[in-house]
Amino acid sequence: MKFATIIGGLAIGSAVLGATAASAQEVNVYSLRQAFLVEPLFKKFTDQTGIKVNVIFAEKGLVERIKQEGVNSPADVLMTVDISRIAQAVDAGVTDAVDSDILTASIPAHLRDETGHWFALTQRGRAIYASKDRVGAGEITRYEDLADAKWAGRVCTRSGTHDYNIALFASMIAHHGAKDAKTWLEGLKSNLARKPQGNDRGQVKAIKEGECDIAIGNTYYYGKMLDDPQQRSWAEAVNIVFPNQDDRGMSMNISGMTLIKGAPNRENAVKLMEFLVSDDAQKIYAEVNYEYPVKPGVEWAENVKSWGTFKADQLPLTEIARLRPDAIKMVDQVGYNE
Ligand code: FE
After folding, report:
1. What is the pLDDT of residues 56-103, one digit of tens each?
2. Alpha-carbon torsion angle 214, 86, 278, 96, nearest 10
């Protein structure tokens, strides 16, 4: 059986996993996250424990692959981003519960599955980006405001069916109920300056270019744009607004991990998972993508700190996963992408 290392769909190397795989000091990770995000962590883990980490990287299809491989799957741990993809793995029946005091003590309850099938490792907020020139401080403070008629023709977002927006819309259903959430989404749609398109950064670019004044985007893109000479001016054209600070807090999403059912290196897999919530690993993992650690007390990256602290919505991520189909239906019903 071949265990190839794949980056961006290209096989760049491979190692053979034989029948003795389970007895070797190693652990096999399937990662839907990019190599630069996780490799520094795995290197540190190997340095500390002597356990080798073999990784398969892919942008999608790893859950299907684990399913296909069935009992022969070499996968021990799946690392991914967005609660919807984690829920997809759990729903597909490929995950197993982990009972670990270290994990439950390190990760707040709303950021892990109560039966131990998944654990968050980093968090990101779904922020509002507002034009520095055309939107006054305090003029928009809540997600609910996005539907206010005063923003008619002034809002830009990516596709309504993208996982990031579906999670936000699911949180609106959780907090307001299906009927009011739908009215809100109709209001937001009617405020759009253009048909939903592009990615989160593309919306901030559109603000810089004067196409719109308000956008929705994940927090870490603020730092990534500031780092990029070509995109720096986009970020400099906006203020990052942490929504709903006087009530429930900013809507959060996660990256996370699951143990794979029948993991051939289960013991090492749990060791790796516990390592990933150590203070060191939490700091490295959050910092590399300008995200927030899940473990309370772990220091934030300097630039992330400079954006300010905020109140985070404590809505359990399981609720967002549960309401996802309703959110997708709602996007369709209001013709959000049309
Ligand atoms: Fe992203």
Report:
1. 999 999 999 999 999 999 999 999 999 989 999 999 999 999 999 999
2. 170
Tell me how far apart the alpha carbons of residues 240 and 128 are, in angstroms, rounded to a whole number: 6
d(CA 219, ligand 1 centre) in Å:
9
The predicted-structure confidence for 109-134, as pLDDT tens digits, reads as follows 999 999 999 999 999 999 999 999 99
Residue 4 pLDDT > 50? no
CA of 27 to the centre of ligand 1 (A): 27
Model confidence band, residue 24 (pLDDT cutoffs 50, 70, 90):
confident
Give distance in angstroms: CA of 289 to centre of ligand 1. Answer: 9
Question: Rounded CA gap, 314 and 292, in Å?
Answer: 14
For ligand 1, the distance from its centroid to the CA atom of residue 64, given in whole angstroms, is 22
Cα gap 248→266, rounded to integer Å: 38
Report the separation in Å between the CA atom of 91 and the middle of ligand 1, taken as the mean of its atom positions: 23
pLDDT tens for 317-326 read 999 999 999 9
305 CB neighbour count, 10 Å cutoff: 10
Q: What are phi and psi of 161, to 5 degrees?
A: -95, 0
Q: Give the pLDDT score at 298.
A: 97
Q: How far is the CA of 263 from the centre of ligand 1 (A)?
A: 29
CA of 218 to the centre of ligand 1 (A): 7
Tell me the sheet residues that pair with 221. Answer: none
DSSP 66-130: HHHHGGG----EEEEESHHHHHHHHHTT-EE----HHHHHHS-GGGB-TTSS-EEEEEEEEEEEE
E strands of the chain, at which residues? 2-7, 10-16, 26-31, 52-57, 77-81, 95-96, 119-131, 155-156, 214-218, 238-241, 252-260, 292-293
Kindly give the distance from the C-alpha atom of residue 211 to the centroid of ligand 1, in angstroms, as a whole number: 22
Mean pLDDT, rounded, for 179-194: 98
Q: What token pair was written down for 297?
A: 């007390």
Q: How is 84-101 classified by DSSP, letter by letter? A: HHHHHHHHTT-EE----H
For residue 244, report the distance from its CA to the centre of ligand 1, in Å: 21
